[in-house]
Specification:
Length: 173
């Protein structure tokens, strides 16, 4: 697994106020590493959208999440790998994030091991100690009992709402 990633091209989007500054990719990447709960949007075979909250991490230049083989998001991704992950604030100010990309089911054992380690590093006791809500997650990732997806980003956004609101766009080529 390539643990290095090429940084994206960063531009200020058209929904920014005059004089707004771009959010540096490094700031967005740090935020993505700290956020624990995301919303995943996929598309059903009949074209209807499906959105669900889930645990996800930013690691190794991509977003990662897990699901069960029979869950709706897994069925959707089997037919259409394009998806969007979002996270944001609960207030009218702050920064919201959108990551668009292609989800790939990960079966390689060494990659699964590295991703499980990254989940443990990100979530700590919640998935490693018996009393944690997701305490079997790492074990399920390592054993293959949970489907592990890697979302290769193609485009991302940081929508910052302040007195100098900005839409920062990140694109990978």
């Amino acid at each position: 697994m390539d643990k290095t990633a090429t940084p994206p091209q960063t531009t200020l989007g058209p929904f920014s106020v005059p004089g707004a500054d771009v959010t540096p990719w490094e700031d967005t990447e740090l935020a993505l590493r700290r956020i624990h709960k995301f919303q995943l949007c996929t598309v059903r075979r009949d074209g209807r959208p499906h959105v669900t909250p889930l645990l996800a991490i930013w690691a190794f230049g991509a977003m990662w999440f897990t699901t069960g083989a029979e869950e709706q998001k897994a069925k959707n991704l089997a037919a259409n790998q394009h998806c969007v992950l979002t996270a944001g604030t609960e207030t009218l100010t702050g920064t919201d994030y959108v990551i668009e990309g292609t989800a790939t089911l990960v079966t390689d054992q060494s990659t699964r091991e590295a991703a499980a380690d990254a989940f443990e590093e990100s979530y700590g006791w919640q998935i490693t100690r018996k009393e944690g809500t997701w305490h079997h997650l790492s074990k399920a990732v390592r054993s293959g009992d949970a489907q592990l997806y890697r979302v290769q980003p193609t485009k991302a956004f940081a929508f910052t709402t302040t007195s100098r609101s900005a839409e920062t766009r990140y694109t990978w080529t």
